[in-house]
Design goal:
Beta-galactosidase, Chain A, domain 5; TIM Barrel; Immunoglobulin-like; globular; binds alpha-D-galactopyranose
Length: 733
């Protein structure tokens, strides 16, 4: 890893063993790009790639009529002075001008990477990451722009963000402040996004890039089920195991925009950042604004290769503290078993059976506080309901601990019901426009987390419940999208800040709780997977993936989620059948096999299943305990997409390639069909792997393939509806 500066050509080259990123100061003083891609030799001057020719209708500069911004790759473009594509930012001056010319002033190259104040961000030591900060100045407005680039040593990822500082005398307004722009000289890529809805989160969608613009966005106040702040550019020929793929991940949990634009000269521009339509930020003299971070990763080993880059990056450089790279506890959650209708006795019954099965952590879900007997009331009153918890949270947690289980519980700190003591006491603490009705979502209103006093109050309430009880885990939910986003009492000029300040408030509360209770494992949730983003992983190392726990649908949801997010982060539970969402009765074997590639658990009353099923549950738990690190932290290769055939397959391989777990799940069987061969991936071609009674070389398994028939699959059949196997492969010594 290195960052070089070539004074004569005014060029920076960021590189490690895999990638190169070359930037330079353009003839007009703004920052341009010369190359992004596979690692190339360092060289003093790459400016031969600059388009330097007159072209009709382009705007040019008086010193050089053959140089136009429009024809060249830009780093952080503005609109209105010669570049006509999507701009990265817009700074408005007091006179209404939206034009900026940020000119290179100086730069700083250092080992390591600075934190982003109040925001989630990747981190690394001086040996693991290097940073370039380029300072540019707009002479007329007096603003400074600092563009920051960090390159990691051992992975092909560049982290970027921008900072605006108003060091002049004017009152400025940031009307758009995206985090990054990447221009590419050709647009011969497909765009992949991960979109969906409640119960079917993060389904991969491939869109062709043609001349014009395509985008994915959220304006719901959370990253959302509908859109995910992770997109991929892939070459047409890129498969799961080979070919170029570039991924863009936004380390942020609020409104976002990710957009690709191909102009008529064939240049492709990707921009990503806070959604500009729900954002504006006044910058008074002396003030500054820091954008969240965008991570740009590049693989030549296909889509699975790109996924592994992000998986390792998040596990090693985003998840922090006690839970970093730790095995995730096997949990039992009562939600699907009881909803809000429970007594302490029932909870203890469920927990006891969980302990018998081998579960490690019991999680008490919604309904333990205030008058919370249904979803119309109680939210916001974080005080134990004495009828349900006669000895409080502490009493229940201690009883569960006595059984030999850890204990955790559910909260939804950002929300309030109208029928709650909190709302009655502070009706002005919600996001709402005076004089207008506020829309409800699940009978709840959104607390105004842009107000520090609201965050403070909720922190105090939660701190009181947590501090005396032995709490190991917290599930933090957010069960509606934001509407009527207006902060009561804030002056009109600052209302455009509210969506972003809301998220900053969420991050602040997370950070305070994490600091006070560093060993608590946080799991984020938003009506299932509505906040599955890299920003959340900085605070909560795992996320509830979906409220849809059907074994078949989970194949799709978890498969789609794995493109951008590590298995260790994917909350996945076995629930009862018929499934509450789909009515399907997927056998317990397959439900378990799918869920074990995740932060594994159960979400049902194990007292209510048959003895045979209970034996299978015990086996599953024992299996997960034995192979947990390989399941949750292995190198993942997706082998067969459930979006193409009614069968999913993937394999998780240990870092030394001596062990692997292969999963095959058949959702719909094809009758009277010859078994196909499945080519495995990621194995050591030279190693002889034991698989049941048989042994195979790695190259055999990867080149010949494993026939999907009983004789080759020790254990169970996969030729029937909802049949599934997880097979352990071990290299012979
Ligand atoms: C959301 C979550 C569920 C559960 C309920 C409780 O829907 O996604 O897992 O916690 O809230 O109300």
């Amino acid at each position: 890893m290195n960052i070089t500066w070539h004074e004569t050509s005014k060029q920076f080259h960021l590189y490690n063993d895999r990638i190169s990123y070359v930037l330079y100061v353009q003839p007009n003083g703004e920052l341009g790009q010369l190359y992004y891609g596979k690692r190339i030799h360092d060289k003093k001057d790459f400016r031969y790639v600059v388009q330097h020719q007159w072209k009709a209708l382009t705007s040019y500069f008086d010193m050089d009529n053959a140089f136009s911004l429009e024809l060249n790759l830009q780093e952080y473009p503005s609109f209105g002075s010669g570049d006509y594509d999507a701009e990265a930012f817009c700074l408005v001056e007091e006179n209404g001008s939206r034009i900026s010319n940020f000119i290179y002033q100086e730069h700083r190259i250092y080992e390591g990477k600075a934190e982003l104040p109040g925001l989630p961000a990747t981190y690394g030591t001086a040996k693991e990451v290097m940073t370039l900060e380029v300072t540019l100045k707009d002479a007329v407005s007096g603003a400074l722009l600092i563009l920051s680039y960090s390159i990691f040593d051992r992975t092909s990822v560049i982290a970027r963000h921008a900072e605006f500082r108003n060091v002049g005398e004017q009152h400025l307004l940031l009307d758009r402040a995206l985090s990054a722009c990447l221009d590419l000289p050709d647009a011969d890529y497909d765009w992949m996004q991960f979109s969906g809805s409640w119960g079917r989160e993060r389904f991969p969608v491939i869109r062709k890039i043609g001349t014009g613009t395509i985008a994915i966005e959220s304006r719901r106040g959370h990253s959302s089920q509908n859109a995910n702040p992770f997109v991929i550019l892939k070459r047409k020929e890129t498969s799961e195991i080979q070919g170029e793929a570039i991924g863009f991940s936004f380390v942020y949990s609020g409104n976002f925009l990710a957009q690709a634009q191909k102009n008529t000269d064939g240049r492709l521009r990707i921009v990503m950042g806070i959604h500009p339509e729900t954002f504006s930020w006044p910058l008074a003299p002396g003030e500054s604004f820091v954008t969240p971070e965008v991570l740009i990763g590049r693989s030549e080993e296909g889509l699975s290769g790109l996924s592994r880059i992000f998986h390792h990056l998040y596990n090693d450089h985003l998840v922090r503290g006690y839970w970093q790279n730790r095995p995730r506890p096997i949990l039992l959650n009562n939600w699907e078993a009881t909803c809000m209708d429970f007594t302490q006795e029932r909870i203890l019954d469920i927990a006891k059976k969980g302990k018998e099965a081998g579960v490690e952590l019991f999680v008490l879900d919604d309904g333990w506080f205030g008058a919370r007997d249904d979803d119309r009331r109680g939210l916001g009153d974080w005080v134990e309901n004495p009828k349900k918890l006669p000895q409080g949270m502490k009493g229940l947690a201690e009883k569960v601990n006595e059984m030999g289980l850890k204990f955790g519980f559910w909260i939804e700190p950002e929300m309030v019901n109208e029928d709650s003591d909190l709302y009655r006491a502070h009706p002005d603490w919600i996001l709402s426009v005076p004089g207008r009705k506020s829309s409800l979502g699940r009978w709840q209103l959104v607390l105004d987390f842009s107000k520090p006093e609201v965050v403070e109050y909720i922190y105090d309430m939660l701190y009181r419940v947590i501090k005396d009880a032995p709490i190991s885990y917290i599930k933090w939910d957010m069960n509606r999208s934001i509407s009527e986003c207006f902060s009561i009492g804030k002056d009109p000029a600052h209302q455009g800040e509210v969506y972003h300040r809301y998220i900053l408030g969420v991050y602040d509360l997370y950070e305070r709780l994490r600091t006070a209770f560093p060993e608590i494992l946080f799991e984020s949730c938003s009506s299932g997977g509505g906040r599955f983003d890299a920003g959340m992983l900085y605070y909560a190392p795992q996320a509830w993936c979906s409220d849809n726990t059907d074994g078949e649908d989970r194949c799709l949801i978890q498969y789609g989620t794995s493109f951008g997010y590590p298995i260790s982060s994917i909350g996945a539970h076995v629930s009862a059948v018929p499934n509450q969402q789909t009515g399907r009765a997927v056998p317990i074997r397959m439900r378990g096999n799918v869920a074990m590639f995740g932060a594994f658990g159960y979400e049902l009353d194990l007292n209510e299943i048959s003895d045979d099923e209970f034996e299978i549950v015990k086996e599953q738990i024992a299996f997960v305990k034995e192979h947990r690190m390989l399941l949750q932290y292995g190198d993942l290769y997706r082998l067969r997409s459930p979006f193409e055939k009614a069968q999913a397959a993937w394999i998780s391989v240990s870092g030394d390639r001596k062990e692997a777990l292969l999963a095959v799940h058949t959702m719909r069987a094809t009758v009277n069909h010859l078994p196909e061969r499945l080519k495995l991936a990621g194995l050591d071609p030279e190693c002889l792997y034991q698989l049941g009674e048989n042994s195979y070389y790695g190259d055999e398994l990867m080149e010949v393939g494993l026939p999907m028939k009983d004789a080759c699959l020790p254990g169970y059949r996969i030729d029937q509806d909802d049949s599934s196997v997880v097979l352990y492969l071990k290299a012979q010594a």
